[in-house]
Specification:
Blueprint lengths: L1 H39 L5 H17 L3 H18 L2 H18 L5 H18 L3 H15 L6 H21 L3 H17 L5 H14 L3 H18 L2 H17 L3 H18 L2 H17 L3 H18 L2 H17 L3 H22 L2 H74 L4 H33 L7 H32 L3 H9 L3 H11 L4 H8 L3 H15 L7 H6 L2
Helix pairs in contact: 1-2, 1-3, 2-3, 3-4, 4-5, 5-6, 5-7, 6-7, 6-17, 7-8, 7-9, 8-9, 9-10, 9-11, 10-11, 11-12, 11-13, 12-13, 13-14, 14-15, 15-16, 17-19
């Protein structure tokens, strides 16, 4: 009996193990296909896509396919963001955290941390938790600036980080900062011809619309719409259609606005994009209010109210109540209109307090402090290098003094020999006084002396002409000495600046070169940029350059214009992250 069991184990167990291995392999292929189809097919219903990715995740977890599970978690989180709603957004954070833990085992952990920071900044922005959103967005920009070895990756991650940071500034109504970051994102995406350049175009268009630049805004939005349609990205297409509806409403092209909103509504209802569906409904309501078609307004606004309640979004609820208040006022129902208005104001105050909370300010302050600390470390590094340089120079000077001593000793010996030769020559000349040879030599010496005197007189004449018009009655010797001293001082200053730039480049490689080649910054402005990079104040820069404080401010303003930096962004902040 025991022998038969041994035979069974010997022959059957390998076959059973092979079947298990084969099943595991088939499961991995099936799960990977589910995920692949879900990620590339953008025309399917979002709930159907979510179900497939969830199934792939469960297969990956059962079989302990950690890498595949990480990819599934990341995709699920992105789907939940698109679905919208507070519960979905909070659930997406958990999936992003799991994705980071799993994928960091297999790929560069710093890159995974960068992606994680960028993703969470998007989620917290949608949750209107702006301190957290800003914290993660600034961290993403900081991590993206550290990518040096792969230019394609550097452009990719920098653009994503700037795009998200721009959207947060946009939500905080800092339009100039938002536009600057969107343009940075657009630049980096275009460098690698990334499809997401359309997202940057779309956001630039929205910001320009806020700044009342409608013609330029329409150009960017329609460019983005064409790109989304080419990519078959229905979510982004619906979003852009809604924003074109807003633009046409503002320029009072109501029929065109309704056309855009209705097209967006068709997509959002079919795909169950609740948040975008709300904007389509609200946009149509706003157009009907402008046209005084209150029946149609009530129909669409009531649907928008239901969605805003399901999304639990205070900002959307507040703007819906405000439009309802305006409609009630228009039909003469003042009491109910006032109640709606007061409730809208309460919700708006709650949102504004959240957006402008001290925590948001502290995030910005802490970010600036980190930049300042890094600058201090860089300055300390410069001082350390200078100390090493001073020691090296001292040793070199000592060596030169020793060499100089022996050279001087050698020259004295040569001079002694030369004196003896001169005496011999004088004796020889005396002996040949009456000869033709003596006369020829005398002529040569006289010609040489004359040439020297002529040259010397010419130099003196030039110098006298230069100072004659200034102070002819004063001692010329004093003026000449002052002129010579000025020449020496200028040479010394040139050498000092050259030494400064040399040491500065050791700490900040290619910083000055990039400013010159990319923006055409001149030598004087380079000095100011270098001091600001070292975190020196305007007062300290005045002392170093020996110029008036107003001149420093004017120079900084001119440099900001040249570098196309928004008004509210300090030049020192821009230079610290570039």
């Amino acid at each position: 009996m025991k022998f038969s069991w041994l035979i069974y184990i010997f022959f059957c167990l390998p076959i059973y193990a092979q079947k298990i291995e084969s099943k595991s392999y088939n499961d991995s292929i099936y799960a990977a296909n589910l995920l692949s189809e879900a990620r590339k097919n953008k025309t399917r219903n979002i709930d159907s896509v979510y179900a497939d990715v969830w199934k792939a995740l469960k297969i990956a977890e059962i079989n302990k396919f950690d890498y595949l599970a990480g990819k599934c978690n990341s995709t699920l989180a992105s789907i939940l963001i698109n679905k919208g709603g507070e519960d979905n957004l909070k659930q997406s954070i958990l999936h992003f955290d799991k994705a980071l833990a799993l994928l960091s085992k297999y790929k560069d952990s710093s890159i995974q941390s960068l992606k994680h920071s960028n993703n969470l900044s998007i989620v917290y922005r949608e949750l209107q938790d702006f301190p957290e959103a800003l914290k993660f967005a600034l961290n993403a920009v900081k991590l993206s600036n550290k990518i040096k070895d792969d230019k394609h990756k550097a452009h990719d991650y920098k653009s994503a980080a700037h795009l998200t940071l721009g959207s947060i500034y946009d939500a905080l109504n800092l339009s100039d900062s938002a536009l600057y970051n969107y343009k940075q994102a657009h630049f980096h995406y275009k460098e690698i011809n990334h499809p997401r350049k359309h997202h940057a175009s779309h956001n630039i268009g929205l910001t320009l619309m806020k700044l009342k630049k409608y013609e330029e805004s329409q150009k960017y939005l329609q460019n983005a719409l064409a790109g989304y349609r080419e990519q078959k990205s229905l979510f982004s297409e619906a979003n852009t259609l809604n924003n074109l509806g807003i633009l046409f409403t503002e320029i009072e092209k109501y029929s065109e606005a309704k056309k855009q909103y209705r097209h967006a509504l068709e997509i959002t209802i079919k795909k169950k994009f609740l948040r975008k569906q709300y904007f389509s409904l609200y946009g149509l309501s706003e157009v009907f209010y402008k046209e005084k078609n209150y029946d149609s307004l009530n129909y669409f606004l009531s649907k928008a109210m239901i969605i805003s309640d399901s999304l639990k979004n205070l900002e959307l609820k507040a703007q819906t109540l405000l439009l309802k208040s305006k409609q009630l006022e228009a039909v003469g129902n003042y009491k109910e209109s006032l109640a709606m208005y007061e409730l809208s104001e309460q919700l708006t105050d709650s949102v504004n307090k959240k957006q402008n909370s001290p925590e948001t300010t502290m995030v910005l302050v802490n970010h600036q402090n980190q930049i300042n600390e890094a600058t201090k470390k860089g300055f300390k590094s410069i001082l350390t290098k200078k100390n090493v340089l001073i020691i090296s120079i001292s040793i070199t000077m000592l060596i030169l003094i020793v060499i100089g001593y022996f050279v001087k000793k050698r020259d004295r010996l040569k001079l002694k020999i030369s004196d003896e030769q001169r005496k011999q020559l004088q004796v020889s000349l005396h002996n040949e006084h009456n000869s033709k040879q003596y006369i020829n030599r005398k002529l040569v010496v006289a010609s040489a002396n004359l040439a020297l005197k002529t040259e010397l007189l010419s130099q003196i004449n030039v110098l006298l002409n230069q100072i004659k018009t200034k102070k002819p009655q004063q001692n010329l010797h004093k003026e000449i000495n002052e002129t010579q001293n000025q020449i020496k001082i200028q040479k010394s200053m040139d050498n000092m600046w050259q030494e400064f730039f040399t040491h500065f480049e050791e700490v900040h490689p290619e910083f000055l070169t990039n400013l010159q080649t990319k923006y055409g910054v001149n030598q004087h402005d380079l000095k100011i940029c270098a001091f600001l990079k070292m975190n020196l104040s305007n007062k300290e820069i005045c002392h170093l350059l020996n110029i008036h404080p107003t001149t420093v401010r004017v120079n900084i303003h001119r440099i900001k214009k040249k570098l196309e930096i928004p008004k509210e962004v300090a030049l020192s902040e821009f230079l610290s992250v570039n």
